[in-house]
Amino acid sequence: MTGVITAQQSETLQRILDEFKGTQGPLIQVLHQAQDVLGYLPAEVQSAVADGLALPLSTVSGVVTFYNFFRTEPRGEHVISICTGTACHVKGADRMIDILRDVLGVGLEETTQDRRFTVQGVRCIGACGLAPVMMIDDEVYGKLDRKRIQEILALYE
Amino acid sequence: MNRRLDVLVCSGAACVSSHSAEVKSALACEIDARGLSDEIRLVETGCMGPCELGPVLLIYPGGTFYVRVSPNDVAEIVEEHFLKGRPVRRLLWETPEARRIAEEKKQVPFFEKQQKIVLANCGEIDPENIEEFIATGGYEALGRALTEKSPEELIETLVASGLRGRGGAGFPTGLKWRFVARESGKTKVVVCNADEGDPGAFMDRSLLEGDPHSVIEGMTIAAYAVGANHGYVYVRAEYPLAIRRLKTAIEQARNAGLLGLNILETGFAFDLEVRIGAGAFVCGEETALIASIEGERGMPRTRPPYPSTSGVFGHPTLINNAETWGNIRHIVLHGAQWFAAIGTPQSPGTKVFALSGKVVNTGLVEVPMGTTLREVIFDIGGGIPNGKAFKAVQTGGPSGGCIPAEYLDTPIDYESLKKLGAIMGSGGIIVMDEDNCMVNIAKYFLDFTCDESCGKCVPCRAGTRQMLDLLEKITDGKGETADIDRLRSLGMMVASTSLCGLGQSAPNPVLSTLKYFGHEYQAHIHEHRCEAKVCPSMIRFEINPAACRACDKCRTVCPVTAITGKPGTPPYQLDAQTCIRCGRCAEVCPFDAIAINSGDLN
Ligand SMILES: Cc1cc2nc3c(=O)[nH]c(=O)nc-3n(C[C@H](O)[C@H](O)[C@H](O)COP(=O)(O)O)c2cc1C
Ligand code: SF4
Ligand code: SF4
Ligand code: FES
Ligand code: FES
């Protein structure tokens, strides 16, 4: 393998593939672990997975595109996931997206020019009691408004 | 010295995001510094219920319930409560509706009307410690099932209990078990559906985070009853904490001989595997979920064959929702009659709901079936915040419907909700107030289903798209009278010709809002008026000349310089043509001088 991923990453990928060898229907679980390590699933990773599991590449790419969770593009240093679930929607999630656009200059599924932040929409992170909610990487922030969003983003500057 | 106090710190997802971990470590430090480590046990639990008030603490004996605790409160709690025995009153839950401060958890109105069976342990024990689960009677049902009951007896008990599936459709659980038990295949599979795809639902998540062993025990009992030796728990990837706690619990159960080759030395073998979903709503549908467990794209398959005949890798498969699994041990322990006496005759037992939206006490609640919507929203939920008026309650997520105020006294059970054009669904209850536009809500759900349609059937894929286009046309102010009929007939077509439940129920949010909130559609179409002032094409910002004090704030924040004026010389002017309706001026005006209006000017 050449290009996007390092030798060390490709070694890790091989380890993941070995671990799942012989189990039934491992494709999605392998892709999860691969994405965990690499951050996203570029074409060369998909073909390595296809080879490793002896599946046609079309099966692998079909699964990658079907599921929202899998990504084929690299992302910014921090990922802001703004909840667009129902509880957040009725409490003004659209407005929070506008505010983020105001502050960062990017909308949903976009990455800032300096590659610091990627903004994405997610459907409910299960903290609906605190709506509207966003997550930066794994940290959940609730009861958002303009002031809070600005304060929170300042923590990542 | 002996242990004197149990201090339970809620570590449910909502409390974690309100920094319960900081509270816990501050408590640990303070307890240690005061030399109380032997007397006080600090426990992290799953969700206690009132998530909006987090972080919350529960202290035994006494049942003192503290809300909105910050690390700064910790020294006082330790000094006053733990050492001097005087609860810190300012941290107790003050409920204006009851005009009193609740000294103990059970006096809080939020808890009074609840009956916790599935959630009995949630918020009361450490989910990462199997001993605590066992101490509350955990795995006793499994022990009795394996040693005292035949598979047939267990299935009879389940049938007699009347338990119905909590994943949405309400199919009788005992019957499903019987179908799988009667299959002759050598290999059978048991599956827990914890995909919980409805946005605004967090019941299954809370159960797995707060009491994972109850799900494992339920599945193991079922495996014995139907003759299965392998099981899968399918959890959505968005729930890392639930996945971690579940894996820990499985590991502990294995080590304790409660999963594995020789469970409780009876020779019965069963083991569990966790499968992580990858963010596709349709994967909650059982046949799609099975495809996803097999590692494929989660597309629904035609039934029959039903999963009970041919499911995971072609084996007979028993699939139930996580909350359904959480009921099993209680039914085995207390018997079918006990269970059947709770709730209503058609819908026995309790139901867990995730209460959110425009309601004072958001969080996780469990009530007997037959409790009314009003009791849940007003008595438990504390009503609508900020003095606003209730408008609608949405149940059943994207497959459900919106119920207006005149039906608030409807008892919550499968049939009653269905009659209203909504459904029980998995348990999300989302409350809406006068500031929510029902056409916008219908559009929101259609946008969701249109996006999540797996694309296999044309009516679902193309029909939801056309419905969404019509709704967009209406909210953009371009709707015509005929669009209402178009929406209705498209809705009926999509519902009657789609393969799976996603397509069959996708029109529900539109049809139910048309039925109960038709006047809002009419106002959008004929007067270009959005009563709730949500649809951007129909609102305008206007400065009230009498209220403006010329403070200049609005002018400085307007991104398109639509506002002009001179500081000190009111009123300021807002040019409607230039305004992009971003709303920032109204947000900053200290004198509420900027009003949002809707409807044609005449
Ligand atoms: C589009 C769609 C999504 C579904 N999502 C879920 C879900 O997230 N969780 C769930 O338990 N059941 C879901 N179901 C219902 C399942 O197909 C199935 O009926 C259920 O898992 C059976 O378990 P139960 O009998 O215990 O309710 C969904 C159904 C459809 C049509
Ligand atoms: S109804 Fe929709 S989601 Fe269900 S199988 Fe058909 S296209 Fe897929
Ligand atoms: S912010 Fe309000 S008071 Fe100040 S200039 Fe604008 S409209 Fe007038
Ligand atoms: S809807 Fe936003 S967290 Fe659930
Ligand atoms: S997460 Fe703490 S009360 Fe719900």
Can you walk through the features of this model?
The complex is a heterodimer of chains A (157) and B (602). Chain A has 157 residues and is of the alpha+beta class. Chain A has 2 domains: 7-66; 78-154, Glutaredoxin, CATH 3.40.30. Chain A is built from 7 helices and 5 strands. Chain A has a 5-stranded mixed β-sheet with strand order 2-3-1-4-5, covered by helices on one side. The longest helix of chain A is centred in the first third of the chain and has 14 residues, at 7-20. The model of chain A has no long low-confidence stretch (mean pLDDT 90). By secondary structure, chain B is of the alpha/beta class. In chain B, helix 18 (458-475) runs antiparallel to helix 19. Chain B is globular and about 85 Å long. Chains A and B meet through helix 2, helix 4, helix 5, helix 6 and strand 5 of A and helix 1, strand 12, strand 16 and helix 17 of B. Bound molecules: flavin mononucleotide (FMN), iron/sulfur cluster (2 copies) and FE2/S2 (inorganic) cluster (FES) (2 copies). One FE2/S2 (inorganic) cluster (FES) binds at residues 83, 85-88, 124-128, 131, 133 of chain A.
Q: Please indicate the percent range of residues of chain B in DSSP E strands (runs of 2 or more).
A: 15-25%
CATH superfamily of the largest domain in chain A: Glutaredoxin
SS content category of chain B: alpha/beta
The quaternary organization reads as heterodimer
